[in-house]
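Quick board copy: two proteins, each given as sequence then tokens.
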Amino acid sequence: MPVTPSPVHRILAATLALLLPGMASDPLRVVSISDSPRDTNAETGSGAMLNHLEAAYQIKLRHIDASAPQADLAELQDHDVILFHPSGRIPGETAGRLREALETGPPLVSLRGAVHAFGDDADFAVKVLGARHGGQFEDGATTRTRPTQPAVAHPVFDGVSPIRSRHPLHRFEDFATDAVPLMIGAVAGSPPQTVAWARTQVARRIFHTSLGGELDLENDSVKRLVANALFWAAGSETRRIPPPQLARWERKQGDFTVPLRSREQRGDHEGAGWRESIDPLEVPVDVAALVIADMRDAHWCRSAQEWIDANAEAVNALASAARSAGMLLVHVPSGISGFYDDHPARRRIEQVAGITVEGNYPIEPITSREIDLPPIPLPNEDCPGGGTRGAAWTRQHPAIHIHETDIISGVGRQIYSYLLGAGIDTLFYVGVHANTTMLDRSHGIREMSAWGMDCILVRDMTDIMFDPGTPVEIPHETARERVVEHLERHLLSTVSSGELIEALSNMEP
């Protein structure tokens, strides 16, 4: 959940704004320095971050490519703050000039690559940034971060959700006496490390974070952290530009008919078997939504991630067909919605009817009934080959596109409130895992069914958490079909993705 600055910080910022009106209205003058030219058309990485800073905040940027011969470092003192974010080593004679400028220049905000910018010259990190770089943890582990307890209300964390990173976690040691830890991070099985800190007792303010790799810079909360740090370093309150008005979701009219598969008991006597039943259901498209559950970029269980990687593009194709036909798309990346805090799809669900993750849910469930689901007939819910449980994910799988008219949330009551307010009561589910999280989390099938939603499982676009055993006792596909059939008997109907796409393509106005 995003953190907010303390009342003291807000009062101080408001007082400064009244006493110094120019500070509150003039754009913050930021000089960006990296080892590459700025790409104003970039959609990812540092170029996209710089574009976002100028579009979303009262910031005026000048960019310096320090890899260019005779890079112009003049007039740095004319800026309010320096943003130093190289991805590699600064070459040639520019390195010496830049090093000197960074030691004496305006307030400094530096990101991950700054510790390597001058090669083996570790003295820069110690003397300027305020700590010695001591290497990094192994690649592939996900870092989970949080503010230190004393820094929870620090202005750099205003509106910043918990951040996770796929880049190797840096180690730091020998911190300067005025270096104040602001954020710590850890990977599974290792002690926490300082991920961000600030220096305030030098002649200027300095902020450094080991976040800032290319993948990090796609995270809206990382962008917010950087923006807040820039304004804090300059001694100013963060000044956002009001975001553009949300695009209108054009509701379409029309009905589509899907063949729903369920299971019926052959008789009411003990031991009666089950038979498959196919029944057509006519669905108005404007009351239907496709829920994409926990299709994330990484998973602690290797087989789970392999299934997600193999099926992400097919899920995206189904999502595209559903969106084109007029269905609402609901993206549910549990625990990591903050990655998208500035995305229109995230803003959409938070702005409608005052719905917030802090608990302001204006719409109570119309009904809430007990769902009596017999235990699923599988011997385990384990990962094949084991695995260390943990939150490896940082975002939704990048192969699944999120459109500005979709919605993003990981909170069931928030999703329910939005759906009910939009008149939506029929949910088609894809994602993972049909026998655990997709079934039992607040956004899941059991809860939404209890609240009166008609839930339908897209049976070939889901997987289960199950260890077939060694040697194999129950093949994975057999176990998955067993779960699907169990749900068809006791909870819901299912449809295949091909049948759903065909029904949408034949939709009648």
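And the next:
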Amino acid sequence: MTADESLEASQNRRLAFEWWWLIWIAAGACVFLSGALLGAVAGGGSAGEDDGFLHLLAPPFGGRDRVTVLAVGVDTSEGRGLADTIIALAVWPARGDLAALSIPRDSRVLVPGVGVMRINASHSYGDRPLTVRTVEMLLGSHFDYYVEVDVPGLVGLVDAVGGLDIEVEKRMYYRDRSQDLLIDLQPGLQHLNGEQAVGYVRFRHDATGDIGRIERQRKFLRVLARELLSPKKVGRIPSLVDAFLETVDTNLAVRDILSLKKLVEQVGPDGVLMETLPGHPRMIDGDSVLELDADQVQRTVDRVLWGQGTRVVVLNATDIKGLAARTAEFLAEQGYDILDVGNADRKTGSTLILDHRGQARRAQRVAGTLGMGVISAVPDGDNPADVTVILGGDFGSATR
């Protein structure tokens, strides 16, 4: 993988996280507010209303230990309804774990009842139900819930919050008469309406191409999420509710959405295991597609969506030759997945166990297996390892 490809892959992972992060924030804000307006949250009155309030206070997700959600972003700007963002999410509510698997839109899969094609086309043939069936068949996993976002519908959300203040990096001008699209933005801090903001997000006609577009999408999503949660927007609740209902379709209950929102805020983007389904680019009949390997798909699903296995990097921070290799072999025998073995940048007297997922459970297990280690949280959502072991002088002395 080239440096540019690595950078784009990293940015795509973060963008994917921020798409569903925005979904939870937007849904939590809008559904909760709409529930308040409609009396679903307010207690008092008839017995039926009291029951509704008690229902809201029931355990999220029916008290289940693990649930799955499929998030789909649909681009209907050209009338085709392509599912250009597909993210499978696993949630362990009790232990506070989140994992997300992004499925590239060009993945070549079997769409039930239609044929082999890019997975994003599944939505244009059978809307959300067919996309859900396609992903379930691909991953071998049932989804309890779905969230579908109409990407062009974000125009309405931006207008509903009164527009967004965005720092436009450069002069942006592009016209496509076939799509009735005009992007005409000046550099500097601009107050953009919905159409202008989505034009800012879609612009990619410069040297940075898709990489620059991804960065702009991230900036846009942060600003929009901040505005959606601003207490100053209370007066816009009715228009926010209308925009939400036109943009987001989900079978998540209010209490589930609020639980997810809280969990996302607690974990943060660097505490989430986020991966993209691996594949190999190919040209088939003149089309560029991503060819998936069934064994790789299954291993990735088991690790990400089922929480199986802990991926470990082992580094030697002592003068003892071969210590990291021997320790890695021992850990592999205990069932750990060893990603890399090498030398640390500097020597240390104490063995360190670095947790990259924001949850100490995996790091504690590794420390228990080794019989020592100071656990330190170093969240890093882009690090393929769950845990990094830095072997110090204490470990070297204990194993001589």
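Board note added afterward: The first strand starts at residue 67 and ends at 75.
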